[in-house]
Structures are given as structure tokens and as C-alpha cells.
Amino acid sequence: MIALEESRRITKPAVRQTPAVELENVGKRFGAKVVLDGVNLKIAPGELVAIVGRSGCGKSTLLRLLVGLEPETEGSIRIGGVPFRGPNPGARLMFQDAALLPWQTVLENVALATSRNSDRRNEAARALQLVGLEQRAKDWPAILSGGQRQRVALARALASKASILLLDEPLGALDALTRLEMQKLIEEIWICEKFTAVLVTHDVEEAAALADRVLVMAEGRIIAESQTSLPRPRDRSSSEFITLREALLNWVMNGAA
Prior knowledge:
By secondary structure, the protein is of the alpha/beta class. The chain has helices spanning about 5, 60-65, 105-110, 120-130, 145-160, 175-195, 205-210, 240-255, and strands at about 20-30, 35-45, 50-55, 75-80, 80-85, 90-95, 165-170, 195-200, 215-220, 220-225. Helix 6 (about 175-195) links the parallel strand 7 (about 165-170) and strand 8 (about 195-200).
């Protein structure tokens, strides 16, 4: 209950910000199978949102809708306040597989994502610098490690200048140490560039470490969410972080009851 003195304060009206992403009662069916069921979600510009949940809960399907690879069956999706159907030119999807072209150099692979009207090589070089691979620009993808290939894939996504970066388990195939290094890199670049990002992951610790807000999905619905203001970089040994991680894990395992 608001105290009387506080209720009398004169405050300026809040400035309403158009969400970067807005889903309203979005559903997706494949035949009789319901994959997404009445999803409502708003993501602010520059927000990093993580989505966790068991396999088959609809996480990756949601990303495919946002990038325009699949149409929604019900409801509506707005990007920057504008409804869209078909491919979303403002979004870039990064997968677990780096999907680099072996006959193109590292720089050429990154340049493929840049605008045709831009200085493509310079933009690609800047993106490689962001991920710490500027010295590998002339190399072939085949001689890179798995972590380096994912860095190139991240550079390619950044070079596209997409307003929304969609990350579908991008670190899932990496060893534990490389995964931690990539998490740190993604966080550092996000802090610098402040792009809007949606991360799908099975790793609740990764979600807690990277995201402003973590959504938990089950059976095509968002069943819980947790917003955190823990300082960055996050101390994974702190009691606050451990509490957040355990709460997320409990929701994923047992639902939000």
C-alpha cells in the first residue's frame, strides 16, 4: 500500500518506449501439435533476454518466428511497433553451428552479412576486431578451433547491423572453458554495443550470467520470469547469483507452481 505522503508527490509522466519486440497472444501449431500457446512478451530496445526450458518447450520455434522463418498461427508480432510477416530484415539468427563457407576466408565470411551499400571489408574487419580475431582475417575456416569459428559467426551477426540478435544455443557445442570465454565475450560486446538480444539456452547458469531478464518456458508457454540487476560481470559464487540460478533451475525442472 502506498503511503499517503508518497501518493501526494507530483511526478512527471513516464516516457513510453516502443518495445523492440512485442508478441501478443502468439500461437504456433504444426498440424494438431501446439508448439506455442498464447505467448505474450515485450522486449525493450537494448535488453538482453534469455529463454530457458526443457527440449521441445518452444524456445527455438519462438526465435524462428521472430526472424521470419515461420509464420505465427495466431496472434501478432510487432518489431519496433510495426507488425511484420515474412523474413525480418532487422533480425539476425545465430545457431550452434557456425555455418561458415569453407571456400571463403574469415573476412569474406563476415563481409557476407554487411550491407551492399557499405564499405563491406572495413565493416567486416571492425566486427572481427570486436571478437578479437582481426589477426585471422585471411585464414580459412577449416584451420580455426570450434570457439574461433563461433567468434566468426558472432562477428558476422554483428556486421549485419541487425537491430535484434537472436542466439539459438550458440555455445552448446563448445567445451566448458571455451564456453565461459564466449559468454564473457558476448557480455563485453553487448555492454559496448547495446543491441537487443534474445538468447535461447539450456544452461540456466549461462542465462543468469548474461541476461537482464530470464524467461522460463514449458509446453509452449512462458511460465515464469526473473529480472535481475546484479552488477556485471556477475560473481557466480555470490549468494544472490546462486539463489537466482537455483530458482531458475527449480522452475525449469518443476514448473512455476
